[in-house]
Amino acid sequence: MSPAAVHFGAKVRSARVDLGLSQESIAELAQMHVTNYGKIERGIANPSLVTMLRIASVLGTDVALLTDGLSRDDLPPEFEVLTADEFLRERDRRR
C-alpha cells in the first residue's frame, strides 16, 4: 500500500460516509465493481485518473479535493524521484 493510495482512499471514504451512501451505491453509480471500489477506499488499489474522476463525479466533488495534500513524499519507497529542478542542479554540478 502506498501512502498516496491510503490518503486518497480515506478521503473517498469520508466523502461517501458524509453522503450517507454505501460502497455498493457509489460503485454502481461509478459503473465499477464494488470489490474494486472497496480496494480503493482501503488504499490497496491505485485507481486510474479516469476512475478517480468517475468516483469524484459521483461523490459530487473535485479530484483535487480528494488528492489535496499529496506530494512525492506519499509515493511508495521504491519510487524515489527527483524533481526537474533537482535533476538540473545535479546535471550542472557534474559538468
Characterization of this structure:
By secondary structure, the protein is an all-alpha fold. Helix content is 63%, strand content 0%. Helix 1 (3-19) crosses helix 3 and helix 2 packs across helix 3. The longest helix has 17 residues, at 3-19. The model has no long low-confidence stretch (mean pLDDT 95).
What is the β-strand count?
0
Give the H and E element order.
Answer: HHHHHH
* Low-pLDDT segments: none
N-to-C CA distance: 39 Å
Assess the beta-strand content as a share of residues: under 5%
Report on the biggest sheet: none
CATH class annotation: Mainly Alpha
The gross shape turns out to be: elongated
- The helix fraction, in percent, is 55-70%
Let me know the CATH homologous superfamily: lambda repressor-like DNA-binding domains
Helical/strand content category: mainly alpha
CATH topology: 434 Repressor (Amino-terminal Domain)
Please, what is the average pLDDT? 95
What number of structural domains do the residues give?
Answer: 1
Radius of gyration, Cα only, in angstroms? 17 Å
Count of DSSP-assigned helices: 6
Based on the coordinates given, report the CATH architecture: Orthogonal Bundle
